[in-house]
Amino acid sequence: MRNAYTQLIDLIRESSLLHATQSLLGWDQEVMMPEGGVAFRSRQLAQLARMNHELATDPRIGELLAACEADAHLMADPLSVEAVNVREIRRSYDRRTKLPPELVSEFAKVTSIARHEWAAARKASDFSRFQPHLEKIVELNRRKAECFGWREDGEVWDALAEDYQPGCTAAYVARVFAPLRERLVTLVGELTGGTCRPSDAFNELKLPIGQQLRFVRYVAERIGFDFGRGRLDQSTHPFCSGTHVHDVRMTTRFHENNVLDALGSTMHESGHAIYEQNLAGRDDESLIGLPISDSVSLSIHESQSRLWENQVGRSRVFWRWCYPKLSEFFGVSVKGFTEQQVYEAANRVRPSLIRVEADEATYNLHIMVRFELERGLLGGQLKAGDLPGAWNEKYKDYLGLDVPDDAHGCLQDIHWSMGAMGYFPTYTLGNLYAAQFFEKAREDLGDLDDQIARGEFTPLREWLNKNIHRQGMRYESEPLCEHVTGESLSAEPLMRHLEGKLRPVYGL
Q: Which range marks the domain in which residue 387 is found?
């Protein structure tokens, strides 16, 4: 008979194939599927979710896990491929076996319909159309959390966050956010309260969408996205998905008068995609679908997207390389704008309503709003019907803005329609990791700034491949940070990055 580990891996590969098919159908729904297909697609996704759940919770997996865990030789090195796979399969198996198949199927069906209704409600700027679907999603997430359970001193939110950031709790997030919010509000006040106002004219320049698409494709390929193993499309909300390292799909969006938004969104999603394309399965296809060839957490994933979008894409040295490319792609339309003006436009700080369009200094305030409201919805302190009012109140308090309508308010994000609750804080944690990783890369690579200024992105990408991407789930988020940088996660690198760049832009 084959040994227990080999049998276990064969079962996990079957489950991963179904999951990849689910992912592909989800991508198609957002990008290609005609509107009339939503009802049938929800049934397809529900059936796949049910089948995948049955495979992933097969009692044989539990039996084989126990046999593997009892094998001292197999588990001797906790960081070996085999030991990491067993450890993470155990984590996933224990969580999945707590969920009844009917709940998994219902969740997939409800969220498939909800994504469609969210898009329609957002287009009409009518929260009432999405409200009943949000109520169902909150209820289903509470049921999931009750199945998982949480620590006596914790809360509902903690049980759901475990899927996105193992070990993360609402109390921990609140402790991290409170002082960070004070420092960010202080910095934003300094920047917006001064007399220096960097030019924002480049952000108002109208450029043909077709030219913008060619430009952002060029940048994505130059920084390392492999179009031979992936594709770029358009969607309402930019995202990255796919089935495996050789089929990674990402989307972006365009505005006629804001090419920097398209560039930032594309570099952001490219960061996610480069991570996915360079997991361990690229070198050894037998590892595809296994934990050792999967991303460790959403915060680490987000660190990769934010690093390319912000530490690279909004840097002075990046624009030293990229500025001449504007003329190549847009011709006389960009004549009259200097490199300094474009760099300043990329780093303009201005409180705004839309998270994905937010500048670096205010972005995390958007996340804090969502975390607090999500925590209230799950905890029962906030009813779904009261969400628009509560959202608008927090935007006034945190960013000093009046929200004009639901489309610019609580309907702007797709996440809740997908059922993703416990997710949003990973964005801010990702920003913190990104700054810390980039500081270490600069230290290790020596002339990183000069490399970027010359358009040489390979050294940075290979540094990320080696230290983060190829590690898969070998380390959890915080141990990975310590392994790579030698220090635990800190807000200091992010604040050094923001203050060191933005204060000079604003003449401070």
A: 170-505
- The answer to whether residues 368 and 496 belong to one domain is yes
Of 102, 131, 160, which residue constitutes the final position of a domain?
131
Residue 111 three-state SS: helix
What b/e sequence results for 69-91 when a residue is b if at least 16 CB atoms lie within 10 Å of its CB, and e otherwise? eeeeebeeeeeebbbbbbbbbbe
pLDDT at 462: 98
According to the model, what pLDDT value does residue 236 have?
A: 76
Contacts of 17 (CB under 8 A, 6+ apart): 289
Neighbouring-strand partners of residue 251? 233
Active site residues: 269
Phi, psi of 2 (to 5 degrees): -65, 155
The string of DSSP codes covering 461-473 is HHHHHHHTGGGTT
Residue 279 falls within a domain, yes or no?
A: yes
From CA 316, how far away is CA 372, in angstroms rounded? 35
pLDDT digits (tens, 9 = 90+) for 188-241: 999 998 888 898 899 999 999 999 999 999 999 999 999 999 999 998 778 999
Q: In the chain, how many domains are there?
A: 2
Q: Does residue 189 share a domain with residue 106?
A: no
d(CA 115, CA 415): 9
Q: How many CB atoms lie within 10 A of CB 338?
A: 11
124 and 181 share one domain:
no
Instruction: For helices 492-505 and 170-193, give the axis angle rounded to 10 degrees.
Output: 20
- Given this model, what pLDDT does residue 58 score? 94
Exposed e or buried b per residue across 255-292, where buried means at least 16 C-beta atoms within 10 angstroms of its C-beta = eeebbbbbbbbbbbbbbbbbbbbbbbbbeeeebbbbbb
Same domain, 366 and 257: yes
Q: Tens digits of per-residue pLDDT, 23-33? A: 999 999 989 99
Phi, psi dihedral angles at 23 (to 5 degrees): -60, -40
User: Is 85 inside a domain boundary?
Assistant: yes
Same domain, 41 and 176: no
pLDDT tens, position by position, 67-93: 999 999 999 999 999 999 999 999 999
Angle, CA of 158, 161 and 167, to the nearest 5°: 75
